[in-house]
Amino acid sequence: MANLNVNYTSRYSRSVSPKTRVAPVTLSREHHAGSDSEDDDEAVSGVSPYLPFPPSMNMSYSWLKTLYICGASRDERLYAVEVHTGYSGRLPLGTRPGLILHNGTSTKDPILAAVGDESQMAARFYTFNLNSVLLLPPLSGRKASPGNLVTEGMRARTLGDRGFAFRFSVEVSKGGRLRRETFEWRSIKKGERDEARDGGFKLVQVGGPETPDALALAGSSSGSGSSKATDEGCEVLALLSWTKTWWVNHPFALQFKGSGLSGALGERWTLAAVMTALRIWYLRINLKSNRGIISLSETIRGK
Fold first, then answer.
1. Is the Cβ–Cβ distance between 102 and 109 less than 8 Å?
2. The whole model's pTM is what?
3. DSSP-assigned states of every residue in 130-158
4. What domain count does the chain have?
5. Which residues are 168's β-sheet partners?
6. Inside any domain, residue 2
């Protein structure tokens, strides 16, 4: 993917040394945080990324255990993403398979966020459970650990003849305040966009302010409630594009666009966008990210 040549270090006003790797986050409210048990050994502060995510990212694999978020070049490693099998039972995901984002380039760096299956049983193919959990830093500035990250969710749904999508809600910055809104990654077919010739997803906003329980309602709906949800003219905030080497070496690229590129939606939205993109890739390599599986899941488990 071409380098956008943007000085992304200016997107945030504070200055954080890469050696520090953590910075306080000052956000306003918090809802349910899921936890399997207490774990103070890996305690971290209420944190935000030690450096801003660049506008254009590539991914690289190392020994099939660690995924690296890189800049325009795959040699420019920015963040380490640990592949969590669930066998260790280690927090924050416990026995749920998924991915753990570390706030630095090593898996020994503090845990920033995680994403994975809704439960251990959900990971089994025959359950047809495509629900995901997204674990983000606390909304307050209080001390956090891998056991008390804020729990969000992401749901898959079909879009009629237009493909399928993954929907989530998160707090965004609007007018200096946080407001909960809903977004979804919509599938892109091969050849549909020049920037994603091998297919992928585009991230768009599909709803206004949301309560913490709104995602569950959205996941159970047919998707016809919001006019924005069916508006193909809405702004594309990010683009997730597959590569031909879809499983190893360089599995996909992620590019922010429009309001997503400007940083206007805030750090929390950016982090959620990165983590949900990682989750979609993880579902894909487990053969769960296709319209047929999602449609069957809706038939068996309900919309």
1. yes
2. 0.76
3. --EEEEE--SSSS-B-TTSPEEEEEEEEE
4. 1
5. 154, 183
6. no
Using CA atoms, how far apart are residues 186 and 153, in angstroms rounded to an integer?
A: 16
Q: Given this model, what pLDDT does residue 294 score?
A: 82
- Rounded to whole angstroms, how far apart are CA atoms 278 and 149? 18
Is the N-terminal amide bond of 55 cis, ω within 30° of 0?
A: no
Residue span of the structural domain in which 211 resides: 21-301
Q: What is the pLDDT of residues 215-253, one digit of tens each?
A: 443 333 333 333 333 346 789 999 999 887 655 567 889
Residue 257 lies in a domain: yes
CA distances from residue 135 to 10, 62, 98, 152, 296 in whole angstroms, order as listed: 27, 24, 11, 6, 27
178 near 29, Cβ under 8 Å?
yes
Spans in the chain with pLDDT lower than 70: 1-47, 63-64, 120-128, 141-145, 191, 194-197, 208-232, 245-249, 301-303
CB-facing half-sphere around the CA of 127: CA atoms within 13 A: 11
Q: State the burial class of residue 37 (Cβ atoms within 10 Å of its Cβ: 0-12, 13-18, 19+).
A: exposed
pLDDT at 245: 60
